[in-house]
Write a structure and sequence with these properties.
By secondary structure, the chain is mostly helical. It contains three helices and two strands.
């Protein structure tokens, strides 16, 4: 984080056996997280085992919101702003 990196959070954070991943996400600030799909692989719960698609990022956002005890909207606001900063959108 001190080097300015962002961490992409993907579908496996929603898996039952991903406690360590969730602990890591809990320890990181929302202003350093991005949401990724891993499409077409690693679909989040409840789509696990099926083809992944970008529409499923809402499940990842919900899990991050649960971990950080906030709302999906708050997570979406942070991760959208993070992506804009990282990729220079709006500059």
């Amino acid at each position: 984080m001190s080097l300015g990196f962002y961490l992409g959070v993907t579908g496996p954070v929603t898996y039952k056996n991903a406690a360590r991943r969730r602990e890591l996400i809990a320890a990181l600030p929302l202003d350093r997280l991005l949401i990724e799909t891993d499409s077409p692989y690693l679909a989040p719960v409840p789509h696990r085992g099926r083809r992944n698609e970008p529409a499923f990022v809402t499940h990842i956002a919900d899990k991050i919101a649960e971990i950080h005890m906030t709302t999906r909207t708050q997570v979406a606001n942070f991760t959208t702003a993070n992506a804009a900063r990282l990729f220079g959108w709006g500059d």
